[in-house]
């Protein structure tokens, strides 16, 4: 099955089983906006909790806040978003389709990377066990040629974007003979900048202007509250402020399901440090964040690092953790050394001092910031796409199973009476009543037990607890494990411990 097919199946599975719906579907949907259904909302909540626990609960020097989406409009002037939060756009005159000019070039680069992979695969087949990938990539003339070409194109693209030389970006697209994927034509408009912030009107503002913005990142709510939290929490540098919340961007290339949305959620943490110590903390947080991802049990080869060549207006170092989505490796989380850019800018624009008095150094300074910023929806997609598996079973049957890490699974345990009679439902309800205060459980008595197991597999429930006639005699049940389908007989009294052990946050 091609990756495209897998992705299509995943999207329809997400809809069929109540994970993700297109927003306003009854009105034919709203582009790049999605709703989470009954199991999707649970999975999302569990991801948030896993992140919040690891950041806030497990770090004495990190606290969490919940700032408003609307902020004073000067916030976005100070942060640079009014002037610099732009994408370079280009339109194809024949298809009338709009693209991000840099993405067109990056897609072109991805095609060259695909050619390198083809060469590698061919060589691996030819050389068998003695094949050394690293050596091949660093010596094969054809691969070296491709790599050099990629480097030249990247340098030119990032150089032109850095200088805001949009006519050179267009020239590059034309020189590479990039065609519109829809019309196949190379008839392009000029490239121009487009601001990604959504704006709306607010009743009354003192300045007379009533245009406000929907925040494009949660980070600014943290910066604006930095002093409030530092003072009221008596926080000492280094310390962090974490937040989970909605962000909004008028994305032009809105595709790939919940990967690029116009309304999405971020989980961000700003870590305030002494000036000059930011690179130490940047490395520290890179290591911590990768550990967090790996703690979910998803294999290391699904992740890779990507250092930014073109730095955002606020950063002096930045990298991404990329995930191998069904459509290839793409950004999942960003780790940025933001210097004192934001706090200094807010200090200048607000006229309020945002300094910290360091008692050990006996001096005041504007702290530097290292940020970790992860998309909640992208984490959801990463978890779901890795979890989705179609398995062939003994005897030729098939099952679709979501091998979601148990700690994140929407439903932890399904309570299933073998038959809907003989007192089994009543006993099952008793167990449900005991367990439901510990974890999210699901009770079901309709259809054969096999069908019920399949339905639970399809939503990723790690444990099915079956109540049968023996249960009434000896207070034991069968517990079925989702991944292995193995079943064991256990005491009802041990269920909380068995399940609790498997779903605890262990970092
Ligand atoms: N405060 C820094 C910041 O916002 P970013 O790299 O623009 O940095 C951080 O965004 C993360 O937010 C990304 O790594 C991605 O996971 C998520 N994200 C950004 N734009 C998104 C979108 N349109 N849809 C879904 N997630 C998005």
- Could you give a short account of the major beta sheet? 7 strands, mixed
CATH-scheme architecture of the largest domain:
2-Layer Sandwich
Proportion of residues in helical segments? 25-40%
* Helical run tally: 17
* Domain module tally: 3
Gross morphology is globular
The residue-averaged pLDDT reads 95
Q: In the CATH scheme, what's the topology name of the largest domain?
A: BirA Bifunctional Protein, domain 2
Q: Strand portion, in percent?
A: 15-25%
Our Rg estimate from Cα atoms comes to 26 Å
Q: What is the CATH C-level name of the largest domain?
A: Alpha Beta
Span of the ends, CA to CA: 35 Å
Strand order of the largest sheet: 3-9-10-16-13-12-11
Q: Indicate the low-confidence ranges by residue numbers.
A: none
* Structural category: alpha+beta
The CATH superfamily title of the largest domain: Bira Bifunctional Protein, Domain 2
Bound molecules: glycyl-adenosine-5'-phosphate
Kindly state the number of beta strands. Answer: 23
Describe the model.
The protein has 507 residues and is of the alpha+beta class. The protein folds into three domains: 37-66 and 217-404, BirA Bifunctional Protein, domain 2 (2-Layer Sandwich), CATH 3.30.930.10; 86-195, Herpes Virus-1, CATH 3.30.40.230; 411-502, 3-Layer(aba) Sandwich (Rossmann fold). Helices cover 39% and strands 24% of the residues. The protein is built from 17 helices and 23 strands. The strands form seven sheets. Strands 3-9-10-16-13-12-11 form a seven-stranded mixed sheet. A five-stranded mixed sheet has the order 20-19-21-22-23, sandwiched between helices. Helix 2 packs across helix 13, helix 5 packs antiparallel against helix 7 (141-162) and helix 7 (141-162) packs antiparallel against helix 8. The longest helix is centred in the N-terminal third of the chain and has 27 residues, at 101-127. The mean pLDDT is 95. The structure holds glycyl-adenosine-5'-phosphate. Glycyl-adenosine-5'-phosphate binds at residues 217, 219, 249, 251, 260-261, 264, 266, 268, 331-334, 371, 373-375, 377-378.
